[in-house]
Structure formats: C-alpha cells, structure tokens
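USER: I would love a firmer grasp of how sequence relates to backbone shape in proteins. This is the protein in question:
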Amino acid sequence: MTSTSIVYGTKRKSGLETRKIKVNLSADLENLLKLYGIVGFNYCAERSFLARIAYSYLLCKRKMIEKRVKAYENAISMHRNGASNSVIALKLAREAREHDVNNWVKKHKMGKKQGIRVSEKDFPKFADWIGEHAIAGNGLAWETVESIKEVECGDVRDITTFERHHNFFANGFLTGNCGLVKNLSLMAEVTTETEEDPIEKLLNKKGVKLRKL
C-alpha cells in the first residue's frame, strides 16, 4: 500500500453522504502476487478468474526473472575469469541474448547496480499469455514441465474424494486418482454386536451404499 485517501461517495435518501476510502497499491511484482493470489476478487466471478490467471502469469514472470538473475551472476563470474562477451553470450544462449551480456558487463565495469527485468522480447504480454495458457474460463492454466528427476519415495499415501469425481487440488495442481483406487478406498465392512438399524440409517445419511453379506 503506497497511499490512502478519502473521497466523496453518494448521497442517500436519508441525507447521509457516504465516503469512499481509496487505496493505492504498489505495482511491485511480489505485491501483485499477494493481491491476486491471497486477496483475490471472490465477489466477482469474472475478476476472480482474471486474478487467478494473473497470478499464474506473474509466477511465470518471476521464474523468468530468477533465471535471468542467475544468468547475470554467471555472466559476471565468467567475465571476471577473462571470458569475452561473445563467449559468455554463447554459453548463456538459452538464458540471455548477447545484447544483455554486453549491457551487464558494461554496467559491471562502471560499478553500476544492475536491475534485472524481462522485456516483451523475452516474455509475452498478458493478453497473449492468456491465449496460450488459460484453460476455458475456470482460472486454470497450463504449466510447462522443465525437467523430470527420478527420486526415491518412502511412505506415500493415496487420498480420494466423497464426490463422484476423482480430481482434487494438491499444492495448486489439479490431480486425481484412478477409479480403482477410489472404489477400493470407499469399500469397507462394518460389523456390530448391537442393533444394526441405527448404523444403517447413519451410513445411508452419509451417502454410503450398503450391501448385505
């Protein structure tokens, strides 16, 4: 929040005049991520959709900036070790252009602090990004898998849902189990030494389908 101000609103039939509190927010990347990812716009479906998409867009942009920061650090390190700009640009061809390397090295020599950003040449505009990544109008977005690494798994668990669908969100990713896992997880044998009717009524109320053995 950069500033706040109180402005005149509307005058009601009772004669009371409302006041509006106007809040100006910083356009800093991290601040926008908090606005769209935490605050959101739950009162409006259309804005809520755009907020979720904007959040995904900004996450991708932040990832791009992190890559460029790493490329900048590598470029300066190679420069200090005597590598020419053309050699540095060749080794960092996937992360930066030769124009970027020249600017980084030039400012480093001048002792100026380099602010890393991404331009339209490196990252698409929001409207173009939506067309390529947004899935319908539900706020979901396609992600790109950068790498796959095989790791050892210890104790793993399967979870499911009460609904007929097998999908659920885990850490922001839409995932799910196969039908067999879901069906097995919902099968159970209930035995009791007391009256069965109250137990059956409770299970039926919870949506459990009973099968007499």
